[in-house]
Amino acid sequence: MKPFIYDLTFDQLQEWLKENGEPAFRAGQIFDWIYVKRVMSFEEMSNLSKGLREKLMDNFQFVTLKEITHMKSSDGTIKFLFGLHDDNAIETVVMKHNYGNSVCVTTQVGCRVGCTFCASTLGGLKRDLTAGEIVAQVVAAQKILDKTDERVSSIVIMGIGEPFENYDATMAFLRNMIHEKGLNIGQRHITVSTSGIVPSIYKFAEENTQINLAISIHAPNDKLRSKLMPVNRRFPFDDVMTSLKFYQEKTGRRITFEYALIGGVNDQVEHAEELADVLQRMDMLAHVNLIPVNYVPERNYVRTPRNDIFKFHRALVDKGINATIRREQGHDIAAACGQLRSKHMESNAR
C-alpha cells in the first residue's frame, strides 16, 4: 500500500522532492494545498507541473476516513467514529470551549495498556496508526469547522491508544501540526498524554518542544496504580516519577497529572494527601486535573459522589497543590474514550 501524503513531515517531503529531481520549495506549495486549502486529490494542485502531480499520485495517497457515525452532545461536543481503509474504526472528538475548538485524536486502533476503568482497552491493540492517519483526524475536524469559518485552536492526544507506544508516528504528526506551513497550531495549545511509558518520556524531554505533557497517574502509589493500570508493572510508579522529574528539569515545563476519580477505589482524602506528598517530595511543578470517571458497562467502577470530589480537590489545594476538576463534556453521548468504538465492535460481532 502506498504511504499517505500526510505521513511526511515538511523536511521529509523536501528530501523526497530532491531525490525525485524536483526543487525543495515545492514542499511549501504541497503543504499549502493539503493543510491550508485542504484538497483531497493531487489533480487539484494546479500550480504543480503535471509531471510532479503524476509522481505524487504514483507514490502517495490521501487518507480516507469514512464516517461510520457521529453523535452530538447538548454542549456542542461532536464524537466521530471513522472507518479506516482496513475496516478498523477509530474515534475523534471535537470539543467547543469558550476559548476555541479542541480536537481529541486517536493514535492507535485499540490499546494494550489495559487500564481497568477504560473502554479503549476492550479488545486489546489492533495496530498503530500512521502519522497520516492521525493528521487526517485533525484535517477532517478542520473541514467541518470551515463551514462556520472556525478553526482548530488546540489539540489533545488523549484518544484511543498510547501515543508514546507509537512514538515516531506521534512525533511526525506533531511536527506537521506545529509547522508554519501546516496547520500552524501553537505548541502550547497541544497536549500529549501518556500512561507512563518511561523510555519515551526521556526521549520526549530531548525533543526541545513547548508541547504540553500530561501523565495519566490515577493513583498515589505503586500498589494501587498497578491494580488500576497494568502498565505500572512494566514501568513502576517511582520510575515514572523519576522520568517526569528529568523531563521537568530538562524543559522547565509544568506537568499535568490526570487523575480519574473512581468511587471507593482511589477517591478518598488520604489518597489526595498521599499524592500531594509525592508531588511535594519530588519538588515538581504540577497541575492535577481531577476527572470524575465515566461509567463503562463492561467495567465495574462507579463515579465518585459529588461531595467526595470536592473533598478530594480541597485536600490537594490545602496542601498547596494546583488542582482543578475537569469540566465534563459529551457526557450525554458516551464521549468517554473508546465507548463508541466498543459499541460498534459489539454490533459487528453479532
Automatic annotation (TrEMBL):
Intracellular or extracellular location(s): Cytoplasm
EC number: 2.1.1.192
Matching InterPro entries: Aldolase_TIM, Methyltransferase_A, RlmN_N, RNA_MTrfase_RlmN, rRNA_lsu_MTrfase_RlmN/Cfr, rSAM, rSAM_sf
Binding site for [4Fe-4S] cluster: C111, C115, C118
Gene3D superfamilies cross-referenced by the UniProt entry: 1.10.150.530, Aldolase class I
Any single Gene Ontology cellular-component annotation: cytoplasm
Cofactor binding annotation: Binds 1 [4Fe-4S] cluster. The cluster is coordinated with 3 cysteines and an exchangeable S-adenosyl-L-methionine.
CDD domains: Radical_SAM (cd01335)
Reactions accelerated catalytically: adenosine(2503) in 23S rRNA + 2 reduced [2Fe-2S]-[ferredoxin] + 2 S-adenosyl-L-methionine = 2-methyladenosine(2503) in 23S rRNA + 5'-deoxyadenosine + L-methionine + 2 oxidized [2Fe-2S]-[ferredoxin] + S-adenosyl-L-homocysteine; adenosine(37) in tRNA + 2 reduced [2Fe-2S]-[ferredoxin] + 2 S-adenosyl-L-methionine = 2-methyladenosine(37) in tRNA + 5'-deoxyadenosine + L-methionine + 2 oxidized [2Fe-2S]-[ferredoxin] + S-adenosyl-L-homocysteine
PROSITE patterns: RADICAL_SAM
Major localization listed first in the record, in broad terms: cytoplasm
Cofactor(s) it depends on: [4Fe-4S] cluster
Other information: Reaction proceeds by a ping-pong mechanism involving intermediate methylation of a conserved cysteine residue.
Function noted in UniProt: Specifically methylates position 2 of adenine 2503 in 23S rRNA and position 2 of adenine 37 in tRNAs.
Family statement: Belongs to the radical SAM superfamily. RlmN family.
Name of this protein: Probable dual-specificity RNA methyltransferase RlmN
Species in which this protein is naturally found: Paenibacillus agilis
Lineage, highest ranks first: Bacteria, Bacillati, Bacillota, Bacilli, Bacillales
Gene coding for it: rlmN
